[in-house]
Design brief:
123 residues, alpha+beta, 3-stranded antiparallel sheet, 6 helices
């Protein structure tokens, strides 16, 4: 995942095929798989907004720049946190298509990008 630019609340990211799959599967799990208490507070957007983001992520093309709202990147980060918390490690890979460690790394990458954007925004 490469942060190619930012303008206010919009960030331009380039995602690989695996990263798109990761985003897609994490959003799919929170929208359709696991139960997320107080969805909007936990994920950072309504279930309908998350479902719309899922539809958008589902058709992204790998290695192409796409613009996301900062809140959308946060929602994906929060979706990853939810699946890491809720899914049993033994079923994690079969449900998400990635290992627990790969999902933690994806969340850490999103944390780093979001932190970088927030630093620039507040400077």
């Amino acid at each position: 995942m490469v942060l190619e630019g930012q303008q206010s609340e919009r960030i331009t990211l380039r995602l690989t095929k695996d990263e798109i799959g990761h985003w897609n599967n994490a959003l799919n799990e929170v929208c359709n798989g696991i139960s997320v208490a107080n969805f909007q507070a936990a994920i950072g957007m309504t279930r309908d907004e998350a479902a719309a983001l899922l539809e958008r992520v589902h058709v992204l093309e790998p290695d192409r720049s796409d613009v996301f709202l900062l809140g959308e990147a946060l929602a994906v980060r929060n979706a990853l946190t939810a699946v890491l918390t809720e899914l049993d490690p033994e079923e994690f890979h079969s449900r998400l298509g990635f290992t627990v460690e790969e999902s933690r790394q994806m969340r850490n990458t999103l944390d780093a990008i979001i932190g970088q954007v927030r630093l620039v925004r507040s400077a």
